[in-house]
Design goal:
The chain is α/β, with parallel strands linked by helices. The chain is 46% helix and 14% strand. The strands form two sheets. It has a nine-stranded mixed beta sheet with strand order 1-2-6-5-4-3-7-8-9, with helices on both faces. Helix 8 links the parallel strand 4 (144-148) and strand 5.
């Protein structure tokens, strides 16, 4: 969907878009068809509300956001995630609530971290919990940003583990960010607010309507470069998120499980239909051309400790294509046996990869 950038009065356009969100909060799925035919959000508000009995004051509603330290980022502002602009129906704006971070942090996280969605069944098993404990600690260590929906089960447990491991997590709500839902996860939501971001496309005081759950899931997958499904029945909200991810041309990963466990059947179907089976975090990370700052620093440290001969051999190699051993032999004044020893050392240090015993490439 191609969204036009307002031509003028951008602050007012933002204020009026927030007011229009309030107008449609009880029937939000009609907002696209209702608004996009107007030349501006100011005009749309004036036309749509001209006969309304209960008048909304856009500027008073804007003050409410400011008093509660809730930010609103419309689609035309630079802090709006570029990943989200790629999806078929991007939210017209995002509400953010965080005690620790600001909008500039929200924007920067999508370039300095690898955003991945983690979703799954509400009835998480011990197996699912053990897998999450393992992979989230490892993903966080590789600067993965965890996106989920704060639902019971896999979502909530993923958020908790991310916070426990000092990672960054974002919860996309099916209500306003001032209405943490489900209520049973209120305390977890508050922890996310303190340590990450609560996100919604819905305005203040919007309750969690059942029909908003599936629509919310497109944002979870849209904010992420891939979606990981941890246990899901064959009819599951997690599978809706996975389907959105496929429509958005994103990677989908699924955890294998027993065919006798109803909570694994959805994942097994995803794998059967082409989702990548995961048994380790490497199965996830290798799909992305992403190197975390931690990984880069570790690599720099390894390179600084190389001997002069190791550096000479390493610098001959390319990171784009494998180099034949005979080519290396022609470019250095070392014996073949010594070169093989150096190449083995570089491979042990995870600085190069060996292909077919004769070709070498920078890792």
């Amino acid at each position: 969907m191609k969204l036009k950038i307002p031509s003028s009065n951008l602050l007012e356009e933002k204020i009026y878009l927030n007011a229009l969100n309030i107008v449609f909060k009880n029937d939000f799925l009609k907002i696209y068809s209702s608004l996009l035919k107007y030349p501006s959000f100011i005009t749309a508000f004036e036309e749509i509300t001209k006969n309304a009995e209960n008048k909304i004051d856009p500027f008073k509603e804007w003050e409410k956001l400011q008093k509660q330290n809730i930010d609103f980022i419309p689609y035309w502002e630079e802090e709006y995630p570029s990943l989200l602009k790629e999806i078929p129906s991007p939210p017209l704006g995002l509400y953010l609530k965080s005690e620790k971070y600001q909008r500039k942090d929200f924007s920067s996280f999508f370039s300095t971290y690898l955003p991945l969605a983690i979703v799954g069944t509400r009835k998480i098993t011990l197996y699912g919990k053990r897998v999450l404990e393992k992979i989230i600690s490892e993903l966080v260590n590789q600067n993965v940003l965890v996106v989920s929906g704060l639902a019971y089960g896999v979502d909530a447990f993923s958020h908790q583990l991310c916070i426990k491991n000092n990672g960054i997590t974002m919860a996309v709500l099916s209500s306003g960010v001032d209405q943490i839902t489900p209520r049973g996860n209120y305390n977890i939501g508050r922890e996310i607010e303190k340590n990450g971001f609560l996100i919604s496309e819905y305005p203040l005081n919007t309750p969690s309507f059942k029909q908003y759950f599936p629509w919310r899931n497109r944002i979870i997958s849209g904010l992420s470069r891939g979606t990981i499904v941890i246990e899901a029945p064959e009819k599951s909200g997690a599978l809706i998120t996975a389907n959105f991810a496929l429509e958005q041309n994103r990677e989908v990963f699924a955890l294998p499980g027993s065919i006798f466990n109803q909570s694994s059947l959805g994942c097994l179907r995803l794998i059967q239909n082409g989702a990548k089976l995961i048994i380790s975090t490497n199965d996830i990370l290798e799909e992305f051309d992403f190197q975390s700052p931690k990984t880069s620093l570790l690599k720099e440290n390894k390179l600084s400790l190389l001997t002069e001969k190791e550096k000479e051999v390493y610098n001959i190699l390319s990171s784009d294509y494998p180099t034949d051993f005979d080519q290396i032999l022609k470019q250095v004044n070392f014996e073949a046996k010594e070169i093989l020893t150096i190449l083995s050392e570089l491979e042990i240090k995870d600085l190069i990869k060996n292909f077919e015993g004769q070709y070498y490439k920078k890792d």
